[in-house]
Amino acid sequence: MHELSLCGAIIDTVAEHAGSRRIERINLTVGHFRQVVPETLSFCWDMRVKDTELEGCELVINAVPAVIVCAACNESTRLIHPILRCGSCDSIDVTMTSGEEFLIESIDLAPAASSPT
Does 114 fall in a domain? Predict the structure, then answer.
């Protein structure tokens, strides 16, 4: 279950960018062919952040479909299986335009504590 180690990498990355501010939400984009099960990632996230400063931080996963564009007919095909073949003309001269992403899109931080005047 590599989702557990992915959660560790997410934690390390966001902690580096958040500084001393509390992280409230992380928006993550995961492509269909990235071999990540969103439900498993969410489960692992809850386990990793339990009893830490990130407990209660929401992990929002945007699952992106795998899509190819055919060079022969210019049609787009949404893929379920890793068969890179045009759904319209059956050509294998295709380019994947989405489905391999694994990106932290944004981090929502709690407002910075203001110092008393």
Answer: no
Q: Write the CATH number for 49.
A: 3.30.2320.50
For the whole model, what pTM was predicted?
A: 0.84
- 86 and 94 Cβ atoms separated by less than 8 Å: yes
Q: How many domains does the chain have?
A: 1
Residue 102, domain member (yes or no): yes
Residue 25 β-bridge partners? 58, 108
SS3 (DSSP) at 40: helix
Name the residue among 62, 65, 49, 57 with its Cα closest to residue 97.
65
- Pairing type for strands 58-64 and 23-31 reads parallel
Write the pLDDT tens digit of every residue in 78-102.
Answer: 999 999 999 999 999 999 999 999 9
Q: How far apart are CA 54 and CA 97, in angstroms?
A: 33
- pLDDT at residue 73 is higher than 80: yes
Token pair in block for residue 41: 């990632």
Which of helix, strand or coil describes residue 97? strand
